[in-house]
Amino acid sequence: MRQVVDLGGLLVSAFVVNLALSLLTLAILRWLMGWFDLWRFVWDPPLAQFGILICLLGLYTLIL
Q1: Residues 5, 19 contacting (CB under 8 angstroms)
Q2: Buried b / exposed e along 19-30 (16+ C-beta atoms within 10 A)
Q3: TM segments (predicted)?
Q4: Which pLDDT tens digit goes with each residue over 1-49?
Q5: Helix axes 14-35 and 45-63, enclosed angle (nearest 10)
Q6: Nearest partner of 16 among 31, 6, 8, judged by Cα
Q7: Helix, coil or strand: residue 14
């Protein structure tokens, strides 16, 4: 992926696009884990969500 993404004349850093994609994926994962009640297996859910967000951000940065 390029360093800068052109969105209708607005130049946006690729990091911002990756962060938005990571937040969207995290929101879907939070909904799925809440639906299946998997948060009961996690000791500290906010810390786990932050860790998942960092992992997703790194994954999207490497892939894209």
Answers
A1: no
A2: bebbeebbeeee
A3: 7-33, 45-63
A4: 678 888 888 999 989 999 999 999 999 999 999 999 999 999 999 999 9
A5: 140
A6: 6
A7: helix
pTM for this prediction: 0.86
37 burial type by CB count under 10 A (0-12 exposed, 13-18 middle, 19+ buried): exposed
Nearest to 56 by CA among 26, 12, 16, 17: 26
Residue type, 63: I
Q: What are phi and psi of 50, to 5 degrees?
A: -65, -40
Rounded Cα distance, 9 and 33, in Å: 38
Question: Contact 56/26 with Cβ under 8 angstroms?
Answer: yes
